[in-house]
Amino acid sequence: MMTIRSRRYLRRSFAGALFVAAGLLNAEPVKAGTVALTFDDLPIFGRYATTAEGTAITDALLGGFRRHHWAVTGFVNESQLEGRDKPARIAWLKHWLDAGMDLGNHSYSHFSLNTTPVDAYIADVARGQVATSALLAARGRRERWYRYPFLETGLTIATRHRFEGWLHDHGYRVAPVTMENSDWEFAEPYDDAIAHGETVEAARIRAAYLDFTAKIVAWYQQAGQQLLGREPAFVFLLHASRLNAISIDELAAILDKAHLRVVPLDRAMRDPAYAIADTYVGPDGDEWLTRWSLTLHRDLPYGAIPEVPADIAAADEKLEAAPAPPPSPPPAASATPR
Ligand SMILES: [Zn+2]
Predict the structure, then answer these.
(1) pLDDT tens-place string over residues 288-298
(2) Ion ligand 1 — residues with CB < 5 Å
(3) What is the pTM of this model?
(4) Distant-in-sequence, close-in-space partners of 23: CB < 8 Å, separation ≥ 6
(5) Domains in the chain and their CATH numbers?
(6) CA 299 to chain centre
(7) Total Cβ atoms within 10 A of residue 49
(8) Which residues pair with 238 in a beta bridge?
């Protein structure tokens, strides 16, 4: 199955082929930009042992969002609500809404449209809206956003049209991604270090994560400049992980330093950049700057893209290959694919 990892490799090889001299040392004064923050694989991405731990991760995420006055959109995989502590997991989603956040659909099972027949995929997305849309409806709201798992949008134009026609008919809009920091690759090695009481290793992973995030945010800003002559209102893909839950203040500092102000998703989506056609059809789960670069026949500065440290990528790969170790109670959510 195509994973986000293989898409990463695909992108890397594409990057190698398209080595472009790092462009545009911009001498203009820095203007404040905006970014919408989206967190995928709710209620929780990664490994945790007990319901109490899951509650703590959720509370830490939401506490951080509120501390920084962020209106964030979370994307739910309702398959993650199943299990003996289902009421607690639904309560976590309620906490998201009570904290002023929005929730969208990320399908029930986190299938890829590239590998799932379109009718089965649609049925899975419909199944993925049951609990979340009920929570929203109880607050007089409705589910409006869909995020493609793996950012994989189908292998044929017919598939994509059929699915996006269904989305449209059911009141959904696709939530694109124009910034991401491979947080999922750091998250599980971090969880694993915490689970084994390896605090020094956990701190090392977290420091590497924040260092990488600062670099990749700058790269996306440069890529936006090179592609559009300006920074778009970014849509940042993150995951609802323990690593992010304890890193909100540092992430906020990185965004501040990059002159990026956090705005809600619908606000960012008003940027006319999001009207640029995305005509890509094929196996790569790319973010939308790459998709627009294909439409506009303009390169991105792939030659200068920062890389996730090799030891962390390898650690994540190893964890993904191994089944989640069963800690004392049965693992609640383990290794949900992105
Ligand atoms: Zn995902």
Answers:
(1) 999 999 999 99
(2) 40-41, 149, 338
(3) 0.88
(4) 222, 225, 226, 301
(5) 4-23+34-321 (3.20.20.370)
(6) 23
(7) 20
(8) 39
